[in-house]
Amino acid sequence: MKILRIEEQDLQIYNVSVNPKTILWGMFLIAVGLRILYVTIFLDPNEYIFSDTRWYNNAALDLANKFDFWITPNNEGIIYSLEPLFALFLTPFALFSPGYFLPVRIALSILLSISVFPFFKICRHLVNPFLSLIGAFIFLFYPFYIFISGLLYPAGIVMILLVFLTYYIFEFIDRRSVAAYFSYCFILFLLFFSSNLKAFT
Asked: Closest Cα to residue 37, out of 89, 134, 105, 123?
């Protein structure tokens, strides 16, 4: 994939030649391992941190079974009104492992780590390769960014989409690429569903 392709000349750091691509891929693999370690060892796979996760999960289960967002079971007719985007993200997992959050956390860990590649390319539009690698390191290993891998909350998905959105803005400016433009529009459309909406009633 083009977005994962890093083409940079070797850097000279204290008279040592280093390849930015090798360093970035190394950081990515370490970050994936660290996140998976965090969500598998330090978190209960069946528990969640915020109570809203119960609503997201129930909405995903209802989408998987009836293609409709969850309504509270007390017959009061309260319509699901949280962000549809995260419930949609959870739906494929609800089909195969309902109520079991470990696969979701692993998927988020991988996706959050993968987003470092477009982030690095965004940095390269602004600063040199060395500073871009420092930015990528902070991006991957900032504690809060690791924490949200297991949060089961829309923040992780929104962060990923915002990184890719910014990447495609730069791609379109640089190359006037039709593919970049439509990718930007599609991500913007997805981000629309990251707002609280009383949809699919």
From this structure: 105
pLDDT recorded at residue 73? 46
Q: Which residues pair with 71 in a beta bridge?
A: 79
Confirm if 109 and 39 have CB atoms less than 8 A apart.
yes
Sequence-separated (6 or more) residues with CB below 8 Å from residue 133 = 20, 23, 24, 27, 120
Q: How far is CA 170 from CA 26, 27, 82, 118, 176, in A?
A: 25, 24, 31, 10, 9
Please name the residues in contact with 2: beta carbons below 8 A apart, sequence gap of 6 or more: none
- pTM here is 0.84
Cα 90 to Cα 97: distance, rounded to the nearest angstrom: 10
Could you state, in chain order, the average pLDDT of each consecutive group of 10 residues for the chain (201 residues)? Answer: 60 66 92 93 78 81 73 52 84 80 91 94 89 93 90 90 94 87 92 68 46
DSSP H or E segment with residue 17: strand 16-18
Residues 103, 109, 115, 119: what is their CA dihedral angle, to the nearest 10 degrees?
170
Q: Measured between alpha carbons, how far is 54 from 87 in angstroms, rounded to an integer?
A: 10
